[in-house]
Design a protein that fits this description.
A hairpin with a 4-residue loop joins β9 and β10. The longest helix is centred in the C-terminal third of the chain and has 7 residues. Strands 6-7-8-11-10-9 form a six-stranded antiparallel β-barrel. The radius of gyration is 15 Å and the shape is globular. The chain has 182 residues and is mainly β. The relative contact order is 0.22.
Length: 182
């Protein structure tokens, strides 16, 4: 139905993405099949392990059979406005990209980025370029540690990026996922 991004967070294939990435926008239900394409362009079926729509976090599991490369979590609580960050994703379905920006703000809430009733917003705001398809992609610090997951863009025109992008913090992800990582 759609295209999004994700981040492998364990060598066993646990992958985080946004709940809205694996939700059919036509029905509001979770998709029946999730295909994950790794950097080598090989696709794997993934199963949905857990979904928390209130934080827009979902966990998938890729059954690969061998250890997978994964990103190490950093602590988003130490972020400061002006810190350099890198956003990865699959914007507009064109393939893997990396963009650079800064942390513009932390603790952004009540923006109504999440449509879900009872949602909890506590976003990292960044100007690292993101577009539709970037959702679920990694937001990493200058040490390569995952400090957030791209979740939404704020724009008046749905065809352009205005440089106001939001990521779920790594600390909120850790509170949400059903297993221990790192």
């Amino acid at each position: 139905v759609g295209i999004g991004s994700g981040v492998i967070v364990t060598p066993e294939g646990h992958t985080i993405t946004n709940a809205h990435v694996i939700t059919d926008p036509r029905t509001g239900s979770l998709v029946e099949e999730v295909l994950v394409q790794l950097a080598d362009k090989i696709e794997y079926k993934a199963r949905i392990v857990g979904v928390d729509r209130s934080t827009d976090v979902a966990v998938l599991k890729i059954d690969h059979g061998e250890p997978l490369p994964f990103v190490t979590l950093g602590n988003s609580d130490f972020l400061k406005v002006g810190d350099i960050v890198f956003a990865t994703g699959n914007p507009l379905g064109i393939g893997k990209t990396v963009t650079m920006g800064i942390v513009s703000a932390t603790g952004r809430s009540e923006l109504k980025v999440l449509d879900e009733k009872g949602s909890y917003e506590n976003f990292i705001q960044t100007d690292a370029a993101a577009n539709p398809g970037s959702s679920g992609g990694a937001l990493v610090d200058d040490n390569g540690k995952l400090i957030g997951m791209m979740s939404g863009i704020f724009t008046k025109n749905t065809d352009t990026n205005s440089g106001v992008n939001f990521a779920v913090s790594s600390e909120l992800i850790l509170e949400t996922i059903p297993f221990k990582i790192n």
